[in-house]
Input
Amino acid sequence: MKNSSTQAAKRDSFASSFGVLVAMAGSAVGLGNLWRFPYLVGENGGAAFILIYLGFVVLAGLPVMLAEFIIGRRSQSSARSAFQKLAPGSHWGIVGVLGVICCVFIISFYSVVGGWCTEYLFKAVRFDFTDGSPESLKTMFSSFSTSTWLPIINHTVFLVLTAGVVIAGVQNGIEKFSKVMMPLLFLIIIGIAVRSMTLPGSGPGISFLFRPDWSKVTSQTFLAALGQAFFSLSLGSCMVVTYASYVKKDAKIISLSTQTAAADTVFAILAGCAIMPAVFAFGISPGEGPDLVFVTLPHIFSQMPVGGVIAILFFLALLLAALTSSISMLEVIVAFCIEEFKMKRKVAVALVFFFIWVLGCLCSLSMGPLSSWKVLGKNIFDLFDFISADFLMLIGGLLIVVFAGWKLGKKVVFDEVTNGGTHHVPAWLLKTMLFLIRYVAPAALLAIAIFQIHE
Ligand code: PFF
Output
């Protein structure tokens, strides 16, 4: 299908349900799973954090994902116009605009980390980690990430790759890319998990992942788990609304949402299994924080038999995971520009690329030369992360479930998930789903929001 600047009639769409699933899972599975999840698990008591996280995925994540699916598929429109179409004459379109803004903030710092992945893949291919002591690897990472040009060059490469896929459109770009890359990504991570879990001394790492230590759990753990669930499932940013708008009318949205959430969660646990057993096997503390992936792991790879190859595979996986996610964020912003400003796809991609590139450069420089520029005590990189993941995604998620559950209401929700009554969904499932959308998810999100304001 040809891409178009005009809407509706020539609107691009996914070709198959498998295509939708891999694209959605591609967005969900990203740095959040391979970089953020393992270090949060490490810092927050292992299995205890995982259990709380799973609870939030079911009670808050799934209902918001379903609500976004319903809004996107029913409206067949991009973020803002989806709300406007379903609630004409109201101010609900603002929720879509917030989603687009959220994606702008996330992709700006995300593409900087994506650039770190391209650099580290390059280093892995050159076997740069082979004789790395922890100190020299730490210096390697901090001198790279705080320098001026190299991170910006890598950030540019990463954004060019992202834009290259988005410019090709939904079916020819995003769907085709995800269909090849997602299975490859799963295979690589399963391979590394097997290697890591069979290392001598990996036992304590495995029990760290599966035996909860409740003494590490504080109120902050709950906030971190909910924020992570939203970040990992790409919720509250209208990403699901945008992708669901390309989903055909006969697709089964309850199973697509559940499968996406399940794939993302399985992937996060697999990432934990790939990383933690090795961390323990080499006697390293699991609470290394954000340095885990770029400092601790290269050290572990340097000690491991066939570690050089594992390092290449790991950084390739990290790069692919980051790419399929950044593609989805760029698509949210590009689809918005195409529909709101009637731009051609190519023009929209070029303009958005330039805008994000500039913001990303600021994020990158805020690690080094601009580190003294602080707002709310945070540099630009951390500020963008905080505004999007700790604030906009949660507020967005709350407004989205309230919109679906109360503004659209029971009739529309049931109509959409049963494809106009043509697809049978058991009554108990419909009722449970509506209860989660109307009461449980808003209550969980409100509780966390109030708690955060009090902190
Ligand atoms: N879910 C992605 C990850 O785990 O890395 C991050 C993300 C992608 C957030 C797309 C928001 C979004 F719209």
